[in-house]
Amino acid sequence: MTLDPVQLATFHAVVEQGSFDAAARVLHVTPSAVSQRVKALEQAVGQVLVRRGRPCVPTAAGRPLVRLGGQVALLEHEALAAARGALGGHGRARLAVVVNADSLAGWFLPVLAAVPDVAFEVHTDDEGHTADLLRDGTVTAAVTAERTAVQGCRVQRLGAMRYVAVAAPTVASAWFAGRDPGEAFAAAPMVCFNRKDTLQHRFARAVAAGPVDPPTSYVPASASFTEAIRLGLGWGLVPEAVADVDVPAGRLVALAGGRHLDVPLYWQCWRLESAALTTLTAAVRAAAATALR
After folding, report:
1. Which residue intervals define the domain HTH lysR-type in the entry (predicted)?
2. 74 pLDDT band (50/70/90 cuts)?
3. Residue 256 CA neighbour count, 13 Å, CB half
4. Which of 20, 87, 91, 168 falls between 20 and 30 A from 264, CA-CA?
C-alpha cells in the first residue's frame, strides 16, 4: 500500500502539536478536516495510531509513522530549498533534539548556534532515557547514554562526561570528616536531579560496597541542583567543569579522595541523508571532542 502524504503530514502535525485543534491551526484547515484525515490514515493502516488526549500521543503502531512523517517533512523542506535556490521563501528547517540537562547547561547549547538556517526544538531528559524520544519519533537526534543504535538511527560515541562528588564545606565537615567513606556515603543527605537520576546512588553504592538509602532531595535544574549542594542540602555529583571552579574557590569540597564517575555519551540520529542533520552532527562531534573525555 502507499500512504497518503497529506494524511501522513496531518497525523505528524497532530502528534507534534499535541492536539487536533493545534494541528488544524498550523495546517490552516478545520479540526474536522484534521480528524477525517487521521481517521482515513488509521483505516488505511488498520490500526489506531494516536491516543486522543491532552496531549495526543502516538500508539505503538503510530510511532514509526511519526518518525516517517518527520523524515519526509525534513527531506521535502531541503529538496524545496535546493530547487528554489536563490529565490528563497522556503524558511528554516526544523530539528527536534533531546539532550541531558548537564550537557545542555555546559557544552551542547553553543552547538546549535553553529548550525545556520535551522530552528530547533530542544527537549531535555536523563541521559539514560533520551533515546526513548528517538524511538517514538518525537526527536530527530539525541545525546544519550545508550550505545546500541535505535532502529533507523546511526550511533557515534562522543566521549565521557566526568562527575565529581562534592558537598558544601559544612556538609563535608559534619558527615565526611574523619569517617569511613563507605559509612559516610551510606548515611549523608544527598541531592539528585529527579527520580530518574541514578548517578548519586550508583556512586554511593560503589564507595559503600553495598546498598544505600540516604535522605534525598530532588532539584530538577542543573544550575539549581549545584546551588542546592552549595547551600548544604546534601552532597551530589557535579560535572568536572563545575567542580574545577567551585572547589578551588572554596564553595564546594571534593569528596571520596578524588574518586569520580565517568558517564559515556553517544550521539544517535536518524539514518537520513539530510544536510541540516549532517551539519548538526559535525558540530556536535567537534564540541564533544573538546568538552568530553
Report:
1. 1-59
2. confident
3. 24
4. 168
pLDDT for res 90: 55
pLDDT > 70: percent of the chain: 97
Grid coordinates standing for 146? 545508550
What is the dotted CATH code of the domain comprising 70-140+269-291?
3.40.190
- Copy the grid coordinates of residue 155: 550511533
Amino acid at residue number 49: L
Q: CATH classification of 5-64 is 1.10.10.10, yes or no?
A: yes
Q: Is the pLDDT of residue 81 over 90?
A: no
CATH 1.10.10.10 positions along the chain are: 5-64
Contact in structure between 140 and 271 (CB atoms under 8 Å): no
For residue 29, CA distances in Å to 24, 51, 87, 194, 236 come to 5, 21, 27, 40, 51
Q: What is the pLDDT of residues 132-179, one digit of tens each?
A: 999 888 899 999 999 999 988 999 999 999 999 999 999 999 999 988
Long-range contacts of 100-104 (CB under 8 A, 24+ apart): 100/124, 100/125, 100/126, 100/127, 100/130, 100/143, 100/144, 100/145, 100/265, 101/193, 101/220, 101/221, 101/222, 102/161, 102/222, 102/239, 103/127, 103/143, 103/161, 103/265, 104/222
The predicted pLDDT at position 87 comes to 44
CATH 3.40.190.10 residue ranges in the chain?
Answer: 161-263
* CA–CA separation, 33 and 35 (whole Å): 5
The whole-number pLDDT of residue 82 equals 74
Q: In residues, how long is the chain?
A: 293
Do 194 and 123 form a contact (C-beta atoms < 8 A)?
Answer: no
